[in-house]
Write the structure tokens for this entry.
Amino acid sequence: MLTIPQHHSLVDGVVGYLREELLDSEAYPKGEYLREEELAQKLNTSRGPIREALKILEGEGLVKILPRRGAIVVDFSAEEVDELWNVRYALENMVYTRIIEHDLFTDKSCKSLMRILDTVAELIAEKNAAMPYKISVCNLEFHLEIARISQMTCTVRFLYQVYSQMRQALMRELRVPGRIDGFVERHVGILNHLCQKDLESLMQDGSHSYFTERKKNCELSGQTPMDPAIGKLVMGDIGT
């Protein structure tokens, strides 16, 4: 029997435990049902916090709650991941544009974000089994912190949902040999462009990374990759 640490709220503790189990273990494979009663017994708590935690995890795309049947573990298809990349690309370009046009990126911002990347570099050097999950946590915080700098409250909320739902795909990628190579350097590049207020280079690099991932996802699903210019056109329409 597990017990949630006292310094956590019950719901936060249950969410954290289940999220890590769903993302970084084989305890709950796709299609598995999560029963409130069983989880409550396992975590030594009542069914109320379990129920609330499952609702949060449903919002993150990790489970789907079915009436009178419980919550079932789900995964995103290649087409759904592709759609998430579309949304992420558009929202991040809005964030970068606002930060640079309103001169919101400071030395303090850069140092704070570099500390996150220093942690990622340490995790990569350790090469332990928990690395993909821990890096996904750092990656989420890195991009969310940039989003918060933009002071676009609604956009930050939207991006949190998108980033959370993309963590499954990210962790799968991090487990592929060689995929971790250049991870820190790519993120340092984002900071350099923000420091230099170079929006054009930032969007070009983002477009390259974004459409490289989209092309790979399309190939997996048998779709035809979208031309990068289309994504930029969509971004232009959103910005008007």
User: Anything to note?
Assistant: The first strand starts at residue 33 and ends at 34. Residues 3-7, 225-240 have pLDDT under 50 and may be disordered. The chain has two domains: 10-73, 78-239. The two ends are 55 Å apart (CA to CA).
